[in-house]
Amino acid sequence: MSVRFLAVVLLAALSAPSRAEPPVSLAAQANDPATRSGAAALLRAQVLLDRAHFSPGEIDGLSGSNQRRALRGFQAARGLDVTGELDQATWNALNANAAAVVTAYTLTAEDVDQRYIRIPDDMMAQAKLPSLGFASVREALGERFHVAPTLLEQLNPGVDFARAGARIQVPNVADVAAPPKAARVVIDKSESTLALTDAAGKVVAQFPVSSGSDKDPLPLGEWKILGTAVNPTFHYNPALFWDADPSHAKATLPAGPNNPVGTRWIDLSKPHYGLHGTPEPATVGKAQSHGCVRLTNWDVERVAAAVSPSTAVVMQD
After folding, report:
1. Fewest C-beta in 10 Å: which of 108, 214, 287, 300?
2. Three-class secondary structure of residue 185 per DSSP
3. Are the beta carbons of 107 and 164 closer than 8 angstroms?
4. Do the beta carbons of residue 292 and residue 166 sit within 8 Å?
């Protein structure tokens, strides 16, 4: 083989277009503890906060008020500087949990074939439905894995969510155990948080909440839990709502995750008040309520598992 031929081959190899490396998926980036910036780092932090029982609410991969609240609560509970920011000490403490933050899930026939229904806005129309279930498979998966449907799409570009057997990437939160039993529940109006404390007053879990409004203020003081209703119906009385449609009458709305009080109602000794879920998880901590304390459905289920009848509930400024 001549020197000239070798030179031609080498020149051709050097001038040939190189094959670009495939982009690293959002899931793979989030599962790498070395990822310290961008949506993947925020996704990682939010999943780790959720797993530590310092809930960021709906996991969305965005920096916002609920994430800052969760970080402040986590930092205070771990004896760190309370900044609400993802500083290095906080990152190290979060990453002591070695579990993958994004994991694979295979869609089942039950996931894709269950009856989904559009939920009307009008209360009277809702009362006529047999149930207030999920409106779509994306909403159902969002509730199960505590994730915003938009982020679920970003984790799974091009995936057909209507096909049983499709393999998707989801936040790894399904196996997290319930928080320990709480001695007291503390709802902080200014922070828009609900904390569970042990007998020594140490915060063991924290969740974002919507708690009252100017027209329906949070009833400050100390109350007690009377009991918990699972998948409750909602007894709608327009006389109790300042913004109710004047044409509305009393009605019973069926159970389901899109019920106005979600999947749990934790009844309080204050009449007509409770801790409950919501059909709109993205609004928790960011919108006002009609006086009661509203959480995401998955967070109120964790609170319900950690309290008992007679557990004290303190509502403070």
Report:
1. 214
2. strand
3. yes
4. no
